[in-house]
Amino acid sequence: MFKKAITAAALLCAINVHAADFSYSHFDIGLGKVEIDSDGEEYDGEVLGLGLSVALGNIFYVTADIGRAKIEESTQTTTGLGLGVHAPLGSSTNIYAEAGYARVDIEDGEWSIDDNGTAYTLGLRQQLGEKFELGGGVSRVDVFDSADNSYFIEAFYKAKESVDVGAEISTADDVMGYGVSLRVNF
């Protein structure tokens, strides 16, 4: 149960994704599902995530996020603060990297545990015409003296000038996550 909670933390941090116009100033909300197969036992859970990203000029940005997962009888809350940097790799491709603080709180019946650690993300974003974006990358969360990597693929559609809708699939050790998100760019 403990390992699946740490892995779910990596997936929660990976939910922080970026808007289709390569804007790094936005508010987003995401809903998702997580499926865990740990030691032959299967667990399902729901995830809710909120994120904020604010550009600091043309290269840097700061992030803040909170996610909550309900997996069986346990509730996990993940919070994070980070700093990111991005750069173009041509006219329609962007690379970005984020590093930051991560906190994970887990409650399961009569016990609870929490820890502080670090989170890192490296990703690519590819613009496909005026309305579509594809992206992907790897995230690493280091909490509870354990580090877990997760990998994600995402797609966004620009529904309005400042509103994007997206979908994501992510995977980590014995964990599969998928979700949808709504992003408001400012």
Automatic annotation (TrEMBL):
**Coiled-coil regions listed:** none
* Positions of the Outer membrane protein beta-barrel domain: 7-149
Highest taxon above the source species: Bacteria
Q: Where is the signal peptide?
A: 1-19
Spell out the InterPro entries in the cross-references.
Beta-barrel_OMP, Porin_dom_sf
Record keywords: Signal included?
A: yes
The UniProt keyword set, sorted, is: Signal
Q: What is this protein called?
A: Outer membrane protein beta-barrel domain-containing protein
Protein's organism: Cellvibrio fibrivorans
